[in-house]
Design a protein that fits this description.
heterodimer; A: alpha+beta; FAD/NAD(P)-binding domain; Flavocytochrome C3, Chain A, domain 1; Methane Monooxygenase Hydroxylase, Chain G, domain 1; 3 domains; four-stranded antiparallel sheet; 35% helix; 16% strand; B: Ubiquitin-like (UB roll); Fumarate Reductase Iron-sulfur Protein, Chain B, domain 2; 2 domains; five-stranded mixed sheet; two-stranded antiparallel sheet; 10 helices
Amino acid sequence: MSADFETHAYDVLVVGAGGAGLRAAIAASAAGAKVGVVTKSLLGKAHTVMAEGGIAAALANVDERDNWKVHFSDTMRGGAYLNQWRMAELHAKEAPERVRELEAWGAVFDRTGDGKILQRNFGGHRYPRLAHVGDRTGLEMIRTLQDHGIHRGMSVHMETTLVALLTDGGRVSGAVGYDRERGRMRVFNARAVVLATGGLGRIFQITSNSWEYTGDGPALAYRAGAELMDLEFVQFHPTGMIWPPSVRGILVTEGVRGEGGVLRNREGRRFMFDDIPPLYRQQTADTPEEGWRYVTGDRNARRPPELLTRDHVARCIMREVREGRGSPHGGVFLDIAWIKEKIPHAAEHIRRKLPSMYQQFKELADLDITAEPMEIGPTTHYSMGGVRVDADTQMSSVAGLFAAGECAAGLHGANRLGGNSLSDLLVFGQRAGHYAAEFAAQNGPARSDAAQIEAAARGATEVFERPATTAANPFQIQQEMQEMMQAKVGIVRTGPEMDQALAALAELGGRAAHIAVTGNREYNPGWHTALDLRNCLLVAEAITRAARERRESRGAHFREDFPEKSPEFGGFNLVLRQGADGGMELRRQPLPPMPPPLQAIIEEMK
Amino acid sequence: MPSAIFRIWRGAVAPRDAGPAARHDAGFVDYSLEITPGMVVLDAVHRIQAEQAPDLAVRWNCKAGKCGSCSAEINGMPRLMCMTRLNHLPLDRPVQIEPMKTFPIVRDLVTDVSWNYSVKRRIRPLAPRPPDAADGTWRMQQQDMDRVQEFRKCIECYLCQDVCHVLREHQGFDAFAGPRFFTHIAALEMHPLDRDSRLRELREEFGLGLCNITKCCTKVCPEYIHITDNAIIPLKERVVDEFYDPLKKLFRRKKGSAPA
């Protein structure tokens, strides 16, 4: 009986309390809505805290030649032109204002000599563009939003996980979830819902993502009838830690390269100079000397090839490893210590600009990055794909259901530029919150359906009723899925391997249906993993189906059997939805035509 | 491969409350595990969870020392489980892992830290001065940001709260905010843009005077923030200047306002 469940009613329910969720909640609250936030973790712990490098915004504080047009064209080029142009336009135009308001709310950015917000270089950005706080920008951002948000009248349900969205006809009407502490089911009635659940890295074995990143937003939206898009594009960040084994996957910020760090193979060669894509040849340094001048602020120098886009750098690293020129533990070397040849007090400079990297390697790998090179390799980092949304409002194909940040698709196309994630969270979090509040004001309360609530609650708790004798272990299935996806749908993909992946996912899904959980419902990680696994398996299938369909290589998606870009596939995004028979339906959605003035900007910036 | 014993607190009763009567509900359980190079305590807990005890409750997120979720007491020391390397611990005896003792227990290694969130809400937020430039922006110098940025490194792991004797021994939750929030208030008070003052609350509501600067908080801070020297002592000095300066007192009395 749904009457038994504790029930809350909001105008806008925000799902997730990372950067996008908090910014959405602040915007919805500012628009007069009654706002509830549910978050899987404690407030302030979301994955945004892991973001290191900075927030991309054309403030033009360091180089006055920067403006929204350059940022727009950088973003489109980085995304191999599969981005939704309207989102890239809004993002480039609004990011500076979103950064400035963070400062008004207490964020403490690093400064330029004349007291403005300092900006640093990053891959794929033509000018120094990333507002930052050392290498802990994400922490600064989430703490600022958290501390501002708690004084804005939102109710936060910490350590609460959703298991289903509720719908009323074609419209969202709320959600059902459980609290971790006691395992009690909760009902949230809402006129509008904003998904801000982040990414899906836990589907893969080697990842920089936390346990929360299980593809919840796309999975919840898909089951509620919404469309997903661009799921084949999973970003493998080129620099994750690889040694010792227990730290494998932990992120090493691109800021290391922004500060002059270089990549070398075991022979000591800067291999990034060996392969520069045509699209970037004009903008890339010819010599190491020119690259160094760029990172030290010479405006006439071009950027070193280490600062090419992440998809390209990751593939070059894989090539070095495959061809036997890798480091002892299967990666390559990232060296920042070498700058001591160039500047006095280099060790102090490195500790100041990259304090948490220094600490991370010192404590977890017994390595002093001011003295020795790091060993690094690619790690699953970010999903460009997610819920398909309207560019301006962030509403999905289900009325009243919005999505923002990593769980939404469209801004980044086939590959995301570093720094564009934090700005994405702010720009589209704000938009989603604003338009969700507007939707709530214009539409009355939706009806909540007791049968849907019952079904969701039963589905979430049936694992306790299965006999433990035939039980499958959720941790075991999760691990097998991660290893399988890493091997078959990872950085290098082929059609036959992805066919095998689909078969393996079906088999894992079959076993997951027999998971039994021991213990009770109070803070039981076995249970939580079993529920998260349902989302992981669904989204893993969506990624695989989309990746199998895209028979070309573009951005983060690399097909060994189709290693080149294809003009045909460059004309559309892949959209997925649940078909009438319950299976996944895949279709090609032609790119919306770009208005001539924006086309002209892209031509001009080439 | 070498192995080690992990002695982990299990149950919904806190170690300090677990008298003989509660022993069958709660207590230490030993788990034996093979050790791999570079392993941290959180890896061991995860492996135990996956292979031996799927309902072992533990709170964690980033596993990189950045989110401050996995606080616990390891061999009696408050630490982040994700940043505690096994090769820095003696493995010839069991590695003892307990929940933070200052906060009520939820289950196993998870504690109820919600009190901290209620304290935060009572602290008035930044009140910035009007923008310095016509475009709505401010000008601030890096050296003024440096001291605030030190406090902003805080990851809210609450290990400083766990070790502070005002909270841990005396359970002074009603009259004391604890080192985490003195650091938070210091960041606001020293923020170049802030025009507000939180000195009255520091003295009257947040119990700054109860801190007798034993520096335990500074010792356990995983971000190496100089909590006592850079946050608490300067705040104490400001409170003294504001409320105990004899000249100010005299001045206030003359103006007819209530004596401090």
